[in-house]
Amino acid sequence: MTPEVARQFGLRARRQLDPSQRDAASRRICSRLAATAWFSRARTVALYLASSDEADLSALILYALRHHKTVAVPKITGTGQMHFVAIDENTTFATNRYAIAEPVLLERYASESQVVTRPDLICAPLSAFDAQFNRTGMGSGYYDRFLSQRKRHPCTRTIGVGFSCQRVNTIASNEWDVPMDGICTERYFRRLKRD
What we know:
8-stranded mixed beta sheet; alpha/beta; single chain; 26% helix
């Protein structure tokens, strides 16, 4: 299945969930992620602020902050890049051009200490995924560009996060696609077995 076809399938499937199903599934996803060894060991976690029908990780963000982890969320730059920016309970957010909340920074990047370049764990939203740990996002390539740099940081783990209804048989991957180390849905957490 091409990434475009998989994306349309996955987006349609998650839109068909009613809000109560989506909320309950999001809570289960947060619980599953919090219970993983990867999350427990991580000192710095890169999470995301959900758009309207994505799996909502806000409970996990609060949990991580209360457990004294550094939490970072995406911020899109004018140059088409994505950075992860550290947040806390006092961070102010504004909606970006994709209608997604992101942190407001006073200066260009406020202080360099807010930009997180080597998170221990990245939880990436997805439009669709397959059993080979391939994911497709919304098609803009922000996560793919960021994750391609991960090769320099092999200790970083990446988990694709979504609802089980977004699974497809296979997604034809491109050379720039980076497979996930794990997939988490409301039904399971599976990790890629490496040789």
